[in-house]
């Protein structure tokens, strides 16, 4: 028989799990409990503007490139602008595009509000903001209406695929499957597809897995915080969660909701880009302890993509 103190401890743990079974997901893939956001360095840059030199501005440029606001270049001279710590006009323009998308004060300055939006946990897929420098002037600031977007070229699954199969690699916890199933059911209610789980991971249309750091797809994760997940456009079918995050099934404080993130990433798998409607599932950022369902903008986008 277990010693009485140990028995009492086990009883207490079981009681807590019964009260809140959602916490079974917490750290399902990671033992990281306390972490510093990989983007925390941005707080040291608050107040910088065009013409300033500051350590880590090159890291900001690379992050904005990842998000689609600056372009990487094969030209060594142009690339040098991304690799230095000068706040140049290219960075100012990138920040203005970011500020327009997130409906912030458009000044091209790394102010506190802009930094707070930059450091929010988010999807690793780029935002598509097609604005030119000529659209910015002293008398007019471009406005982006709340609306869904598509990937360039509007790739989508052939309508002949009336059923899309999905699977997880061997060793994935069984309790991950329910929130993903719920997410597929939401999309099935508005998309011209049904979703079916199969055990054969290699044969599935949609392959869902937990990955960590550099995992071989050209889009490495950054550890806890920062990028939460990413997915690839049709008909690739890969959907990756960052295994270093704390995950839960439901809006558990300090954890990210598997169902909400899955719903978002499945939107990408089906062909939707990001929306700047803060109420949409396809909005790029999400806080911990938050659950979202499909919004009108998400539904309108899916119907528009597959209308023909």
From TrEMBL:
First and last residue of the signal peptide: 1-24
Binding, Zn(2+) 2: 123, 264, 268, 274, 282
Organism domain of life: Eukaryota
Record-given protein name: Peptidase metallopeptidase domain-containing protein
Cofactor(s) this protein cannot do without: Ca(2+); Zn(2+)
Gene Ontology terms for molecular function: metal ion binding; metalloendopeptidase activity
Coiled coil: none
């Amino acid at each position: 028989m277990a010693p009485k103190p140990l028995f009492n401890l086990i009883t207490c743990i079981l009681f807590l799990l019964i009260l809140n079974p959602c916490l079974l997901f917490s750290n399902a893939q990671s033992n990281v409990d306390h972490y510093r956001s990989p983007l925390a360095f941005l707080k040291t840059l608050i107040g910088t503007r065009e013409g300033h030199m500051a350590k880590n501005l090159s890291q900001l440029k690379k992050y904005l490139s990842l998000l689609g606001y600056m372009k990487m270049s094969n030209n060594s001279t142009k690339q040098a602008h991304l690799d230095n710590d000068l706040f140049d006009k290219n960075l100012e323009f990138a920040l203005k595009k970011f500020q327009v998308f997130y409906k912030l004060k458009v000044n091209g300055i790394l102010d506190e509000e802009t930094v707070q939006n930059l450091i929010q946990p988010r999807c690793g897929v780029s935002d598509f903001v097609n604005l030119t420098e000529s659209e910015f002037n002293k008398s007019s600031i471009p406005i982006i209406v709340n609306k869904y977007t598509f990937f360039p070229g509007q790739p989508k699954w052939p309508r002949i695929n009336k059923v899309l199969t999905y699977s997880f690699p061997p060793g994935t916890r069984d309790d991950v499957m329910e929130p993903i199933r719920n997410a597929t059911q939401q999309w099935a209610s508005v998309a011209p597809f049904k979703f079916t789980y199969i055990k054969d991971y290699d044969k599935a249309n949609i392959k869902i897995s937990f990955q960590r750091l550099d995992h071989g797809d050209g889009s490495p994760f950054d550890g806890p915080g920062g990028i939460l997940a990413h997915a690839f456009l049709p008909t690739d079918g890969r959907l990756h969660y960052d295994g270093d995050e704390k995950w839960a099934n439901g809006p558990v404080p300090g954890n990210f909701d598997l169902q909400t993130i899955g719903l978002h990433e499945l939107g990408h798998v089906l062909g939707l880009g990001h929306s700047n409607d803060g109420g949409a599932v396809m909005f790029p950022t999400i806080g911990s302890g938050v659950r979202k369902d499909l919004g009108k903008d998400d539904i309108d986008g899916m119907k528009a993509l597959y209308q023909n």
